[in-house]
Amino acid sequence: MTLIVQKFGGTSVGTLERIEAIADKLVAFQRRGDSLVAVVSAMSGETNRLLALAHEIHSQPNPRELDVLLSTGEQVTIALLSIAIEKRGIPARSYTGSQVYIRTDSAHNKARIQEIDAKRIHDDLRQGRIVVVAGFQGADEKGNITTLGRGGSDTTAVALTAALEAGECQIYTDVDGVYTTDPRVVPEARRLARLTYEEMLELASLGAKVLQIRAVEFASKHHVPLRVLSSFEKGEGTLITSEVEGMEEPLISGIAFNIDEAKLTILGVPDKPGVAYHILGPVADANIGVDMIIQNVGRDGTTDFTFTVHRNDYLKALEILRESASTLGAREVRGDDKIAKISVVGVGMRSHAGIASTMFHTLAQEGINIQTISTSEIKISVVIEEKYLELGVRALHSAFELEKAPSRISSSL
Amino acid sequence: MTLIVQKFGGTSVGTLERIEAIADKLVAFQRRGDSLVAVVSAMSGETNRLLALAHEIHSQPNPRELDVLLSTGEQVTIALLSIAIEKRGIPARSYTGSQVYIRTDSAHNKARIQEIDAKRIHDDLRQGRIVVVAGFQGADEKGNITTLGRGGSDTTAVALTAALEAGECQIYTDVDGVYTTDPRVVPEARRLARLTYEEMLELASLGAKVLQIRAVEFASKHHVPLRVLSSFEKGEGTLITSEVEGMEEPLISGIAFNIDEAKLTILGVPDKPGVAYHILGPVADANIGVDMIIQNVGRDGTTDFTFTVHRNDYLKALEILRESASTLGAREVRGDDKIAKISVVGVGMRSHAGIASTMFHTLAQEGINIQTISTSEIKISVVIEEKYLELGVRALHSAFELEKAPSRISSSL
């Protein structure tokens, strides 16, 4: 008998028909002999409906009260799903976050889970019940209702898997797994059977929005095996774990990309300690998030500094940078909001040389100029002109042969 | 500084505009120097919407899960009202039933309040907050969410008033008080300034649906002064208390009536011990509620037995009674579902003779035949032909001079 935690997002529970379909699925697993804990989100649209009510009253509603309001969304789903399970002859029991002591800090609207008391759930499972838990919510030590912020249901599922010492955390979504790249850009894109947490983090943060970053971090920290599956289609999905022996280990797992960013460069800044802080400090103070940061070695006592921000913040960031430039005595400020970022991601590149050169060579062959380059241990990102995005992604997908299933490589780890 | 508990029903919080209007009202009271606890229901229609969702899945949803579902209705209202209060510059804090430890038994969908821990609310009030509590709900000793059944918000308000030792429990409704009878039938009907718990119980149970019976019982038991007021109009409403010295004490407080009932009579039943049980036992077993029960003294070794049921249960009750009649060897069964019940209610009749004769004389003068009579200490009820209902109510209202404000009677209590 395996204990499995299954998480169903808002689309998966978006209608009563879908809730009934999930009840069917859970009951089938239970009849097969598994023990089941389901974590559910609010029915799709419900959170937005509640938010709109609050905003109609107040443009900045009290965060504590907003959590009281929003947490009703999942509470409706847990009750309906439990009713649907019981209709099928299997006992079920629903719990809100506070009822199973999902203890969080007091940061309303973006709380973090600190502790979960698994005893109550284990008692129910022993009695043959399917347990249905509200995702996205908990309570602080004074019993105030908190929410984890959007997408927090994934984190609830992972945290429950860890606390219950369950075998696997299955995240049901509207896609059937994680792909080598976006199939809308590269029709040959292939579903990955396995992936490491690190790769998933790089792919998620770069735009393949399948899982919440915080949930993957949490899973990595607590060694919780995560599986991404489709709510609507059959299949094995993508299993995300630590790097383990015998695992298929391709050089490159996938290619992520986005066109949400804009690039800003300050040229000819006097090259002395603290320059990065003086450039990025005012940007951070204006609440503008920065993604890539690139600074090359200086020349003639000056240096050039480039960073990317979300396109929505581009004009504001440009203005701030121009002020900093005059303060710092920099030569020039340049900006470009017609850029695309492409990243190749894979733990394989740790031990295999030549990934970077293949990447750069491939782009060069297509006549695509690379504007900036930034690398991490398992990722190489380049910024190119926006119009070459699809051409670049397709060329790289083909160059790394991602359309082919990798042969297993026995690892000596 | 007075501590007041104010309860707002579903119609009073039915739209965001009405929620804002209640926030205005609460803030005005607070600025005047009162301490305030608001108890609110779900926005009108919401409970029915949630019930419909559950019933679409299952005709008999699990009662525990139904409570998880339905309790979200008030939770939405407490959050929205708190947000609206804070918008007006007064701090507010919302609580679900379980958060302020409204401890109930485990009878889901019809739980009874056992205990309330007032400490948390007192702490908030000391800090100048308006406290907003979800009506209708609580939690059992294991933390399972329970609901008190329809209208339970009144009971929550009364129980909180008792637990907090507040000065008054104000129930805001869509009427501006309790009337001597239904103003749609008797345009001269007058709002009562004061009323005793007992009178309110008789009037409420007989059809003047202003307050929940359980809430009035609870208020009576804990000596909580109850005031019924309009959410939409100004006015003093009706204050409901124990009978106290110096209180206005009319002979008759009001006239209640209904046409929801049907009458069944079994004639010529052998008059021996246990006969009432043998007649009503099978009716109760069929889950049919019985209102009036009338049995006169027997004659010739047999007796006649009459009772009333809800019209919806009439045919079923008739069938059961026919079976009982043949078992018991009774002579005949008669039924009539075209009846009306009129009751005159007043604590004054305890000490004043002649109320019954005035009532019967008045009806006789109008040519209205009385089919059955039943009395309690502060009430006389008669069953008449349905078509005479309005005529009877108007004649009695006039005969007891209910359109005139009573002169104060000094009591020697």
Description:
Chains A, B: Its EC number is 2.7.2.4. Chains A, B: Belongs to the aspartokinase family. Chains A, B: Keywords: Amino-acid biosynthesis, ATP-binding, Kinase, Lysine biosynthesis, Nucleotide-binding, Transferase. Chains A, B: GO terms for molecular function: aspartate kinase activity; ATP binding. Chains A, B: This is Aspartokinase. Two copies of one chain form a homodimer. With 413 residues, chain A is of the alpha/beta class. Chain A has two domains: 172 residues, Carbamate kinase; 169 residues, VC0802-like (2-Layer Sandwich). Helix content of chain A is 34%, strand content 26%. Chain A has eleven helices and 20 strands. In chain A, the strands form five sheets. An eight-stranded mixed β-sheet of chain A has the order 3-6-2-1-9-11-12-10, sandwiched between helices. In chain A, helix 2 packs antiparallel against helix 3 and helix 5 packs parallel to helix 7. The two termini of chain A are 30 Å apart. The C terminus of chain A is likely disordered.
Helix content of chain A: 25-40%
Look at the structure and give the mean pLDDT of chain A.
89
So what's the CATH class of the largest domain in chain A?
A: Alpha Beta
- CATH level-four homologous superfamily name of the largest domain in chain A: Acetylglutamate kinase-like
CATH architecture of the largest domain in chain A: 3-Layer(aba) Sandwich
Q: Please, what is the oligomeric state?
A: homodimer
Would you tell me the structural class of the helices and strands of chain A?
alpha/beta
Number of helices of chain A: 11
Strand tally of chain A is 20
Please state how the strands of the largest beta sheet of chain A are arranged side by side: 3-6-2-1-9-11-12-10
| Largest sheet features of chain A | 8 strands, mixed
Low-confidence stretches of chain A: 407-413
What is the 3D shape of chain A? globular
GO molecular function (chains A, B): aspartate kinase activity; ATP binding
Family (chains A, B): Belongs to the aspartokinase family.
Enzyme class (chains A, B): transferase
Binding site for substrate (chains A, B): 47, 74
